[in-house]
Amino acid sequence: MEENIDRFEKQVNKSKDKKFTIFNIVLIVAIFVGLFVYMVIVDGLDNILLILQSVNYAWVIAGIACMVLSWISEAVCLHIPIKTLYPTQTFCGSFRIMMIGQLFNNITPFCSGGQPMQAYYMQKDGRRVSDAFSIFSVKFVISQTALVIFTFLVTLFQWNYFQSLMSNFFLLAIFGFLVNIFAIVFIFIIGVNQKLALALVKPILKSLGKLHILKNVDEKIEHLSKSFANFNGQFNEMRKQKKVIFQMFVAATIQSLFYYAITYMVYRAFGNSGVSLFTIIPAQAFLLMLMTFIPTPGSGGGAEGGFLLIFNSIFREGTINISILFWRIYTFYLPIIIGALFLIPFKQKKK
Fold first, then answer.
1. What is the pLDDT of residues 89-117, one digit of tens each?
2. What pLDDT was estimated at residue 316?
C-alpha cells in the first residue's frame, strides 16, 4: 500500500514539474514575442530594418566570442574543483555540466533549477551528490567574491561616472552589493562554523513553520544540518588547496570580464561610441545584481526594463530597444538553445 502511495506521489510531482517547465517555456516565448512587438510599435518596422542594415557585424561576432569565452571560463572554474576530487574528470564533461546549469538557470525563477540538475547529471557520471553541491557552494563563494571585488575596483576608478549614471538607483545599487556580500559571508560561516550557521537559520525556519509557509520543519533542519556538515568538511579540505582556490578565482574574474563585455559589444555594434568598456562594467554589474531579485525565468521582463532604465542615456536614439533584444539573445536565449543541445544523450566508453 505504501509503495503505491509513494508511486502515486512521484507521478503527481513529475506531472507538476512537467507543467511548471511548460509554463516557464511559454513565459520565455511570450517575453521574446512581447519584446519584439513592443520594439516594432515604438521604433517602427522600417526603422528596425534600417538599423539592422547598418549594424557592425564585427562587433556582433565579438559579442558571440565574449559569450563563448565566458562559458569556457566558467567551465574552467567548475572543472578545477571537480578534477581535484575526481582525477578522471574531463574538461568536456565539466563544460557539459556547466551548460546544463546555464539552461536550467535560465528557465527557472531565481536561477533555482541549475544546481539540482547539474548535481543530477554529475551523479549519472558517477559523482556523489553531496560532493556536487559542496563544489557548487565553493564555486559560488569564489565566483561571487571575484564578482564583488572586480566590480568594486572598477567602480572605484569610474566612481564619478557611475554615480551620475546610477543617480536614481544609487541606494538600490548599494543594497545589491550588500546582499551579495551577505551571501558570501554566510556561506563562509557555514564553512568555518556550521553550528553557528545552523543557529542563525533555525529561528527563520521555525518561524516559517509557525506561519504554515514551510512544512516538516524538523526534517528540513536535520537535512540542512547534514548538508552544512558535508559542506564544512569539503570547504575545510578546499581551504588547504590554496593553488586551486587561486586558479578558480582567476577563472571567475575572467568570466565576469567577458560577460560584462557583451553589453559593450552590443553598444558598439549599433554605432555607439564615447563610453569605454570599464565605464559600462559597473552599471552592468548592478543590473546583474538587480536581476537576482526578479522572480521570473531568466529575470524576464525585469532584465529588459532594467537595461532600458540604466543604459538608455548612453545609447544612440532609436537603438536601445533593438540593443536590448540582441543583449537578451546573447545572455538569455543563446544559453537556453546551446544548453538544450547538451541534454542530448550520447554514448560514452566505460572505463
1. 999 999 999 999 998 888 887 777 788 89
2. 84
Left (φ > 0), alpha (ψ -120 to 50) or beta: where does 276 sit? beta
Rounded-to-integer distance, Cα 21 and Cα 19, Å: 5
3-state secondary structure (DSSP) of residue 87: coil
- DSSP conformational letter for 109: B
How does DSSP assign 52-80, residue by residue? HHT--HHHHHHHHHHHHHHHHHHHHHHHH
Length of the chain: 351
Q: Which residues of the chain have pLDDT under 70?
A: 1-21, 23-25, 27, 42-43, 162, 165-170, 292-293, 345-351
Task: For residue 59, count other CB atoms closer than 10 A to its CB.
Answer: 18
Rg value, the chain, Cα: 22
Decide: residue 33, CB within 10 A, 0-12 exposed, 13-18 middle, 19+ buried.
exposed
Q: Buried (b) or exposed (e) across 190-215, using 16+ Cβ within 10 A?
A: bbeebeebbeebeeebeeebeeeeee
